[in-house]
Write a structure and sequence with these properties.
Radius of gyration of chain A: 20 Å
Helix content of chain A: 25-40%
Strand content of chain A: 15-25%
Number of strands of chain A: 18
Oligomer: homodimer
CATH class of the largest domain in chain A: Alpha Beta
CATH superfamily of the largest domain in chain A: Queuine tRNA-ribosyltransferase-like
CATH topology of the largest domain in chain A: TIM Barrel
Strand order of the largest sheet of chain A: 4-16-15-14-13
CATH architecture of the largest domain in chain A: Alpha-Beta Barrel
Structural class of chain A: alpha/beta
Distance between the termini of chain A: 41 Å
Number of domains of chain A: 2
Largest sheet of chain A: 5 strands, parallel
Largest interface: A-B, 41 and 41 residues
C-alpha cells in the first residue's frame, strides 16, 4: 500500500493514538493538521514558511486544479508537488463536495456529476474514472474517491441515494485508480447525522481493503454536538491499523474531540480563511484584529506565541493598521499565526497522547473549555 | 548632522560615486535603492525578506501615515521603525506630492495645503509646521520638507509660484524641525524641466546647509530624455559631500543615468507595483507573467536569479497560474523578485564604481541598451 500508519502510543482513557504516517514523500507525525492549498497555494504563505511553522502535509483540491490550471497541465509540469514546490506529502480532495457547493451543477446521475466551469463556462463531466484520472495526474500521496455529499437537512430519500452512489463510486474509483503503488486511495464513510446510514456506510466502505478511511459529510451545517456524536460513533470502528481522516473539520474543540475518538488526520480552511479576514486564534479564544480595542495595543496577537508574527514583534496595533489600510501583510501575518496556532495544538495533542495525559490538554488551551 | 556620507570611490569617466551613508539606524552602501513602504509596509513582503534580498534602507510616506493610522498613533507605538519592525534606516516623503496627486485637494495657499482625508472625510491642513511635526512623530532617519510639486506641463506662472513657495517652505521646515540631531532634513530642488528655474532652485536650496539634497519634480510625466537631462544638469552641482537623492525614479536606465550624474539615493514603487500586476523585471527586459506563453514554461522568471522565487524553483507556469487564480502568492513572489532585481542592479552599479569600470555595466544588463 502507498501509505502505512505505525501506531506509536495510545491513550488509556480514550481512542486517541499517536502515529507515524509513512508516505512516498516522507513521514508525518499523527494526529496531523493539513493546511489547505485549494488551488495549489496556501494563500499568502511561502512553502518554506509552511514547513517552518511545523506543517508536514498539506491538502490540495482536485476540483479547483482541474478547472485551473488543469490537471493535465500540472502533470506536464511534473505533478503537484513539483508544480507548487512542496516536497512533503500532499492529499487531494476529489472535488465532489466542491462540485455541489460551488459550481454551476448541471446534473447528477448514477455515473457522476456534470457541471459548468466557473472559469470558462465549458461543461465538465466528473465521474469516478475522471476523478481518478485527475488525481493520478496531480500525483498526491493520498487521493479521495468521488462521493455524493448532500447538505445537512437533505431528505431521507436523497441521503439514501447519495449513500448508494458513494459506495458504488468507491468501487469504480478502486478499479480506475492507476497508481495504487504510490498514491493511497482512501474510502469515505458518509451517511450524514443518521446513525443507521452511517453504520451501513461504515460496513460498505470498510469492505474495501484500503490504505486509509475518511469520515465525510461532517461539518456541513449540522452543529457541534452532531459533529462530535457522528465522529465518536464512526471513528473508533474504522480499521485500527489504517489512518483515519476527518474531512474539513474544524475548530479546536472539534479536533480534540475527534482525536479522542481516534481520528489521525485533519484539514480545514479556517486558519487561512479567518486569518485573511483579521480573525486570529489564540489559546484563550479568537480575536478580531480590526476591533478598535487593538488600535494602540503594543502586544502581539498572543503573548508567548512562537509564530513569525508574534515572535517577530508585530503588534496588534500594527496588524490592525495593516488590515484597515488593505495591506497584504496583514492577511499574511494573521494566516501564518493561525497556521502555527493549529500546529501548536497538534503538538500538544501528540504530547498528551505520548504522555498518556489527555486531561492535561485543556489546562494549556482555555479555548477548549468555551462553548 | 543626523546623517553623513563618506565617499569611498568615484568613477573617472562620470560623476558616479560609491559611498557609505551613516544614519542613526545603521550604515547604507550607496548608490542605494529604497523599496517603498507607503503605508508602513512593503506590500506583501515581510521585513526579514526585505533585508534578505539586500535592501538596507526603505521609504515610508508621511501623507499616508498621517491619514492612517495617524502620526501621533505611530509615535505612541514607539515610532515608525518599531511600529513596522524595520530597524534599519527609513526615509519619509513629506506628502506634498501625494496631497496633489491623490487627495481631494481643497486649497493651496502660501501657508500650505488643505485637503480632505480620503479615509474619513475630515479636512486636514498640511503646512511646513505640520509637515515637520508629522515626520518628527514618525521618526525616520531622513525627512523631507513640504514642497509644491506641479505636474509636468504646468504653465510658467504656476511653476514660478510653486518654486517660490517650495523655497520659502524649506526655510519654515528648517525652523520647525524639532529633531535635527537624529533626523536629517533634506532640501528639494524643484523647477520642472525649465533649466533656468532649476538653476535658481539649486542656488536657493543649497543656500541652506543641510545634511542632504534631493531632486524633486522628476518623472512626473515629462519623458525619459527630459528626466535624464534634468538630472544630468542638477545632480553634479549639488554639494559633493552630501547625499543626493532622486525622488521617485524609476526604470533601470533612469537609475544608471542618474548614478552617472552623481545621484546616491533612489526610491520607486515600480518593483512592488509592477510585481503585484504580474509584470516582472529581468536583465533582458520585462515580462508579463499572465501571458499564455508562460503557461507550461518550467523555467524561473529569470535563469540565474538568486531571489527566493527563482532560487526556490517556482516556475513561470506556476506563477502564471497563481496570477490567473487570484492567489496572493503570485504578487508576493513577483514583488520579491522585482525587489531583488533592483538590489542586484545596485550591487552591480556599486561594483562598477568600485572597479572604475562603468562601461562594463551594460554587458551584464542588456535591458539598459533598450529604448
Amino acid at each position: 500500500m502507498a501509505v502505512r500508519l505505525d501506531i506509536l502510543a495510545e491513550c488509556s482513557t480514550n481512542h486517541a493514538r499517536l502515529g507515524r504516517l509513512i508516505t512516498p514523500h516522507g513521514e508525518v507525525e499523527t494526529p496531523v493538521f493539513m493546511p489547505v492549498a485549494t488551488a495549489g497555494s496556501i494563500k499568502g504563505v511561502w512553502p518554506d514558511q509552511v514547513r517552518a511553522i511545523g506543517a508536514s502535509m498539506i491538502l490540495g483540491n482536485a476540483y479547483h486544479l482541474l478547472l485551473r490550471p488543469g490537471s493535465k497541465r500540472v502533470a506536464a509540469m511534473g505533478g503537484l508537488h513539483r508544480f507548487m514546490r512542496w516536497d512533503g506529502p500532499i492529499l487531494t480532495d476529489s472535488g465532489g463536495y466542491q462540485a455541489f457547493s460551488m459550481a454551476n451543477l448541471l446534473s447528477v446521475d448514477e455515473g457522476g456529476f456534470t457541471f459548468r466551469s466557473i472559469i470558462d463556462g465549458r461543461s465538465i463531466r466528473l465521474g469516478a474514472a475522471e476523478c481518478m484520472e485527475v488525481q493520478n495526474d496531480l500525483g498526491a500521496d493520498v487521493i479521495m474517491p468521488l462521493d455524493d455529499c448532500p447538505p445537512a437537512g437533505a431528505d431521507p430519500a436523497r441521503l439514501r441515494l447519495a449513500l448508494d452512489r458513494t459506495h458504488r463510486w468507491l468501487g469504480e474509483c478502486v478499479r480506475h485508480h492507476a497508481r495504487p503503488h504510490d498514491q493511497a486511495l482512501f474510502g469515505i464513510v458518509q451517511g450524514g447525522v443518521d446513525s443507521v446510514l452511517r453504520e451501513e456506510s461504515l460496513a460498505a466502505v470498510t469492505a474495501f481493503d484500503l490504505p486509509g478511511y475518511a469520515i465525510g459529510g461532517v461539518a456541513v451545517g449540522e452543529g457541534t454536538e452532531a459533529i462530535h456524536q457522528t465522529v465518536a460513533a464512526v471513528a473508533p470502528r474504522l480499521p485500527r491499523d489504517r489512518p483515519r481522516y476527518l474531512m474539513g473539520v474544524g475548530y479546536e474543540r472539534d479536533l480534540v474531540a475527534a482525536v479522542a475518538a481516534g481520528v489521525d488526520m485533519f484539514d480545514c480552511v479556517l486558519p487561512t480563511r479567518n486569518g485573511r479576514n483579521a480573525r486570529v486564534f489564540t489559546r484563550f479564544g479568537p480575536l478580531n484584529l480590526r476591533n478598535a480595542c487593538h488600535a494602540e495595543d503594543p502586544g502581539p496577537i498572543e503573548p508567548g506565541c512562537d509564530c513569525p508574527g508574534c515572535g517577530g514583534g508585530f503588534s496588534r496595533a500594527y496588524l490592525r493598521h495593516l488590515f484597515l489600510a488593505g495591506e497584504m501583510l496583514g492577511p499574511i501575518i494573521a494566516s501564518v499565526h493561525n497556521l502555527r496556532h493549529y500546529q501548536r495544538l497538534m503538538l500538544d495533542i501528540r504530547r498528551a497522547i505520548s504522555e498518556d495525559a489527555w486531561s492535561s490538554l485543556e489546562a494549556g488551551w482555555p479555548v477548549l473549555a468555551t462553548a
